[in-house]
Amino acid sequence: MKATLSISNQTYTVDFSQPVDISIPLTNTDENPIAWYLDKPSIEPVRMGDWVGKVSEGQSSTNFNTIAFNPHGHGTHTECLGHITREFYSINDTLKTFVFLAQLLTITPEQQEDGDAVITLTQIQRQWNEQGQTAVVLRTLPNQENKKHSKYSHTNPPYLAADAATFLREKGIKHLLIDLPSVDKEKDEGKLAAHKAFWNVKDVNQVNNDAQFDATITELIYVADEVADGMYILNIQIASFVNDASPSKPILYQIF
């Protein structure tokens, strides 16, 4: 089903019948990705005495599960600057529009002398295509499907250089998506340089007025190889959590 869509005074034709889901499903199995030293999520039926909220066990007319998970460590999630500030900010209040023009870039993080692998400013500048986009999706290589099941704790995954995050902010990017557990180094002594650079947060205890209050970072996505680099319409779907982050379902649509 093709339709026209207007974003920032530009009109695009998209086919809403061909969504490209770049989220990772959350499960209570060992297939679930895990970061930040957590155990896997829990999805279990409610138990009250001998009663179990599970139709297959014959005692309930409905499946009635309780889910325990951490949005940052258990799958695709979208976060706001409240993730790093002393003052509370909610993703439910931060993200008020949900459809954006996005550029998908594929980058092989560069090996540094200290052993880190980093997405650099030069790499992003080399592929940048100025089209008025307000979102960017970063796919890293190698891009094996096991990213959807990886156990990232204590592995020092690649991350985004702070000056690259600044470049994206200065280019008008409001929504940064990446297929890694964080835009920052796993163990960085709490510096969070890329988070701070992208949100323009200089002091987490006293947020400056020119911080990007309406900007989001989405981590732990997965973009399959067959999805070509270029411009897309991006739809970010979140649950209405009053929290710094929510599990999310970003969807790409091809532009015709």
Automatic annotation (TrEMBL):
Entry's Gene Ontology BP terms: L-tryptophan catabolic process to kynurenine
Signal sequence coordinates: none
Assigned keywords, A-Z: Hydrolase
Source organism: Myroides odoratus (Flavobacterium odoratum)
EC category name: hydrolase
InterPro entries: KFase/CYL (IPR007325), KFase_sf (IPR037175)
Domain of life: Bacteria
Gene Ontology molecular-function annotations: arylformamidase activity
The protein, known as: Kynurenine formamidase
The EC number(s) this enzyme carries: 3.5.1.9
Coiled-coil region(s): none
